[in-house]
Structure formats: structure tokens, C-alpha cells
User: What shape does this take?
Amino acid sequence: MKNIIYKSILSLFITTLFVSCDDTEITEINSNGVPEITLSENTVVLTEANSGLDALTVTWTDPDYGFNAAPISYKVLIDTIDGDFSSPQSATANIPFQKVFTAQQLNALLITLELAPNEEAQVKLKIEVVLSSVNSIYSEAVDLTVTPYPALSDISTTWGIVGDATPNGWGGLDVPFYKTDIDNVFAAYVHLIDGEIKFRENNDWTVNYGDTGVDGTLEGGGDNIVVTAGTYYITMNLNNLTYTLESSTEDIWGLVGDATPNAWDGPDWTLYPAGNDIYVTYVDLINGQIKFRLNNDWGVNYGDTGVDGTLEAGGDNIDITVEGKYKITMDLFNQTYTLELIP
Assistant: This one.
């Protein structure tokens, strides 16, 4: 059932003023110039399985400004239930008066607000009508009940990093990129050794990119990209065929062990942050053992003493008895982990 939220009683006059291009004509906004919001759902439970499906539709009325106006854009603002919209997450509507969120799009905004994955929470939404670079009007806020899922588990993109500088060498499984909030722009955190890398799709050489000329631009089938050992934040922009390699000082959790691509020597297989101390990855494992450790070093590491799914600092190695591709989740908040074998 749709939840229609009507605006509160407005004051008789809205005093926001707009000045014409020649700074001589001033126009006052009509007191009805506030949109009314309609949400398609009161409660939304988001899941990774439905990440590509529509989860929420936000619609709003055409405001009556009292004069002819052509808004620059419409934005949906989202904040926590206790927030004041001073630093909300936002999404621009591609068409007037409606914004459709897929589960993945909405989830990314919620995790950025630091909502706990897999826990029900309350958020607020507003519509911002952007009329100029310095003038906007806003709707009244509407509440929504949401349950997000771990955010960066969407590393199931088709793109990855391959090369003898990566944990798995030239044979793949490639280090996965994850999606950013910009279409066709992907990112990855990874530990690399001295060597070379390329970017390719579907763990296959049919579509691959290198850099011929070492100028930061990508060419199909181009030269290998030479790197030195270190921890990197890597981006690949397919909109303009560019890439960046930035040395990273971020703490990076990874998998180490003789069941992993690079055994006990590292570099470790990267786990991606999913918010609220949850980390996720996909990886090919063979029979053997694994542990979790921080920054490619044994100073901070976790195992499982008792084989009960809980993490202990310096705990026992975790046995892998079935070879295959796994989705692995490490939850440091609850000190637990899961190993999910993917058919």
C-alpha cells in the first residue's frame, strides 16, 4: 500500500527570493511551492540476491512556484532518523517527479550512512528542487523502514586485475573490481608485488586493457602496466578509458593460507569493506587452511579455535576441505565469519 505523505501546514509566506539575470527583477515563490512525496513502500528489506531489481519508487508533485521556473535538477535526500539533513546521502532523478532505486543503489546510500547490515533501521527522505546554484526548496521529510545488506558484496562485476604482481598471477582468478557510485567506474584495493598487471573482463583475454605509452590511458590489448610492491587503490574508468594507481595507507584485511591463491607467503587475497566492520570477498580455494590478517602482516590475525564460526585473535587455522569458489564474509563487530561455497 502506498504511503502518501502530505506536507505540514505552511506559513502564509515563503520568503525565499530569486534575482533575475540582470539583478533588477525579484520574484517571490508561491507558498504552494513545496512538493508532496509518495513512497511505493513503507518498509523495504534489501538483499544481495535482488540487488539488480527495483526496490523503491519515490514520486513527488510538481511544485507551484507562482512563476515559470525550470529547475536545474531534482534530488532525493536520505538521512538517518536522527539526522538533520546537514550531510545526507543524495541521488539525482533522471526524470522529473520520480526516482526509482534498485536494491543495490539504495543499499549503497544506506551503508554510506553507516547503517548496520541485516538490521532494520529508520531513515528519512526529502526532495530537493534545485532552482539555481544558490537556491533550492525542500519537501517535508518522510520516514522509511529499511534493512540493508553488506554493501560491497557487489564485487561480482565482470572486471578484474590480472598479472604476476597479483596474488594469483597471470592464471587468474583475477582480483575483482567493485562498483562505485558512477556507472562504468570500478575500484579495487589490493596488495601487489613487483611485476606487471592488466585489466580484463570475465577472467578471460577476449577483452583486456593495458597502457601503451605509460600515460594513464587504457588501450584494448595494450602493454602490461609495470608496478612496484605495495598496497594500492586502483580505479578503472571505462567512460573515458583511464585508470589510476594510488598508494594506499588504508588498513586492508586479507586471506592468507595454503588454500588461497598465494599460499602462506602473500600477498594476501583482499577482503572488501562493506560497512560496520564487515568485510567480503569471492575467492577460489583449494584443500588446505586459511586465516584472516591485517595489512599482509602477522601482527593482527584471526583464526577459529573450536571450529564454531567465531573469530579469535591468533586462533587456529581454518580448514578448507572442499575445493571451489567461495563467498567469504568476516564480521569483526560480532567476531564471526562465514564460508559460502558457490555452485
